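fyi for ur records
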Amino acid sequence: MRMKTLFCIVLAYLLGLHEPAFSQSVKLGIKLSPTIIFNRFVSHSDSIAINNTQNDKRFTFGLTADFGLTDNYFFSTGVLYSLRKVTFAAVNLNSGESDTEQYSLEYIELPLTLKLYTNDIGVDSKIYFQPGFTLDFLVNWKGINKNDNRVNGFYFFDSSFYIGAGLEKMLGVTTAFFAGLFYQRGLVDIANKNDDITLKNDLLGLDLGLRF
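which gave:
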């Protein structure tokens, strides 16, 4: 509930910035990002091996805000709702038996990035590069299968290194469409309260959105 309240506060703050006094330096937008989730595991048990069994498809969507530093350089942030999934097989090295576990996770994601534009490469079109980091706050998680209990809990905070690039094309005086690719590499072990597993999430996704 506290994280949902945080989502509403940040959303209201970003919307409040889009007033006439800021209209030349702040650009709001919306985006939808289909993603592929890659889980990185390390097992600290002598008898159990943890293997990534599949790369799951999920999505991220929400509001973006770009703050102009110069004509071509922006500080880009926002508030996003990110669905993620953890899937792994735990193999008993003594018996050879294995079981697969799956967990669904929901995050509020706050990107902290730079958006660096080239000059026009065509009619009203620019390429952008977007390096930075994300701050991710867990709002909900659950085991998908009945016997998913090897992970006792997930840490409420995650952070990722973010790198992206894409193309933005003006559709009118102030409206632009953008499409790009991004990669997020998880920096935090999110398998809280579990000494046997280290787990980090990576995301590879497609950005599709409008900037106003």
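Residues 44 and 63 are 39 Å apart (CA to CA). thats all i got for now
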